[in-house]
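Forum: Protein Structure Q&A
Topic: Joint prediction for protein chains with partners

I've read a bunch of threads here and the consensus seems to be that you should model interacting components together rather than docking separate models afterwards. I'd like to see that in practice. Below is the full input, 808 residues plus whatever partners are listed. Could one of the regulars post the assembled result?
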Amino acid sequence: LVKQYEALAEASRPVLGIADEAFSAIKKQITREEVRAVTLAKLRLCQDMVLWDIGAGSGSVSIEADRLMPDGRVYAIEQNEQYQRFIRENLRKFHSRHVTVVEGEAPGCLERLPDPDRVFIGGSGGSLWAILSVVDQRLAAGGRIVVNAITLDTLAAASEFLENAGYRVEVTSVNIARTRPATDYKMFEAFNPVFVLVADKE
Amino acid sequence: LVKQYEALAEASRPVLGIADEAFSAIKKQITREEVRAVTLAKLRLCQDMVLWDIGAGSGSVSIEADRLMPDGRVYAIEQNEQYQRFIRENLRKFHSRHVTVVEGEAPGCLERLPDPDRVFIGGSGGSLWAILSVVDQRLAAGGRIVVNAITLDTLAAASEFLENAGYRVEVTSVNIARTRPATDYKMFEAFNPVFVLVADKE
Amino acid sequence: LVKQYEALAEASRPVLGIADEAFSAIKKQITREEVRAVTLAKLRLCQDMVLWDIGAGSGSVSIEADRLMPDGRVYAIEQNEQYQRFIRENLRKFHSRHVTVVEGEAPGCLERLPDPDRVFIGGSGGSLWAILSVVDQRLAAGGRIVVNAITLDTLAAASEFLENAGYRVEVTSVNIARTRPATDYKMFEAFNPVFVLVADKE
Amino acid sequence: LVKQYEALAEASRPVLGIADEAFSAIKKQITREEVRAVTLAKLRLCQDMVLWDIGAGSGSVSIEADRLMPDGRVYAIEQNEQYQRFIRENLRKFHSRHVTVVEGEAPGCLERLPDPDRVFIGGSGGSLWAILSVVDQRLAAGGRIVVNAITLDTLAAASEFLENAGYRVEVTSVNIARTRPATDYKMFEAFNPVFVLVADKE
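Posted by a regular:
Agreed with the consensus. Here's the joint model:
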């Protein structure tokens, strides 16, 4: 019976697309719904992959990735304690099945995780090159790394590292503006641009 | 054995994220990967919904929606014969399971379809209001309409109609630019902006 | 001697390009430097034109237009008293020569002004059609109207009015993001998009 | 009499804002009207400055800068012969007064020019660092460099060089889309994004 109820509940949850407000988070820091969708599409997730979500923040990418992969394993890596609490809260709220919170600092804490098929880097806490270096060693052939950069510095550094390491690199700039529903006038409010870098390992 | 093979093949296909080049289409007219991802997220598809994809073009939204909904039913409505051929070709190529091609002109051909939970309008062939009028009658309560507008005219008309009909309307402008992989210089190439309008029926 | 000093001072002021922070204004409401530059270019100002700046706000467009037109006459129309004070302060600060502040509500207060060669509408206080109607009667043949819209409503209404009145209408969407100087990381901060509508009277 | 006629003609030319189509150029390569306006505003030109326009292309920035500086001196530096012809043609067409075409390759050909107050780099033919190095030596204190980058590589390299050399660096990303006038539908067409880098010498 419980299982039936669960299945019913599941069926009524969107497979993709959770509103920003639905997550517990520091509002200004959450990856916006539209950027999250682009990020998830760029990750090219298959049903049973291992995803590392480095700098998981509120866990929004992990949670949506989990919904897309019925047999996946998602590792939400986050060193900030406040953010860890947000992630736990959101995992409960969204009934995530296969997300493990990894409390610790990357790249150190990556050692004990299974090798990834996909890696998402949403934040690197100043250790970008060290993280990319470990990720490069562990990532499966045919694997893919996606980095969301909001600074020119991160974008340039990630791009340089990954090209030198022989990856095929593509960058997409995403400029989003949105009107608020239920207002008299439809005024567009801009979100800060995000550069979504995709790197394929041959 | 066939079933096992099928399951295996399935597992190796991304649940979300198909490159633009992978579709048979008139290249300049396809909904770009990034915009498609935003559109799919805005559709808030659940596992077993009925989706009308009006003005299906190459069928790219239908095909990605089908992957997201294991028990869904997708109707790809398209009146242009060349596009219908593209859709059929793409459905085969991507092993789509629950997509029905509806050859004909909306809103006329919508009559024989089951009521939709979600409606996506990517093109309206000049009959936007007539289509919205039928969609409004048929859409379930709690249903959602997403319109991708590339002209100010479509955006303004859809917005006006749906607000007057009591929907809660939100518009997102999506400006995307992308570098090409495997070039010496990372030059950003812009795609035309798309306005993604979302309307919720209370 | 005073004249010489004046000339010297003049020579050391940029003809175009004033930083946002230099203006007294409600910071969030000022037309951003980049959008102002696009607006001024779209106005196609010649040396001795008459410009109406309707909804002048902080007066930033009037002040930059004045610098571009050595023999021009600029009318900064503004009904809000706080904004009028900002304009006066800014006119003094930037040594504007040919800008007249018009305190009052458009379109009523336009009656006593000389016919314009160019009209900029930065705000319309809810009377857009009434204003456009008067502007249309008074604008010289070969004249040009520029409207900066931040809402879909203003954009659609201005576009509809001016097309029906026989103008040649072009719309430019301007999406700007900027890094802050003197920070450790170059993070792009987005400004809300502005739609710059240009209408030519034949 | 000629002088009077000249003055009259002058008065009827816009001080700022020339349409892209008005220039002889390779259409896809011209700096778009809107980006040109932003660039000119960022240059903060005063009445009598010396401007180096490096990689002048069609000469559009030089020509608009000339109009803004009644007593300025503009050097349009260009090594490509086809582009040099475009520049000469455009200088004639737009009656530019104080623009000198410098045929040759930067940084070599910069030696014989007077020290600049402002430098615009629209193209660097692969010698960006060598050019910036010379520009840095020659630029007056209080001077300003503006670089328009369309690749991540140029943006990152210019930013790195100028920050290391002690400049105050700001980057603006400009995303423009425009409708065509006189069409039945207002469809927005995007131009490739440009990163406008501004560097101030203290």
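The radius of gyration of chain D is 17 Å.
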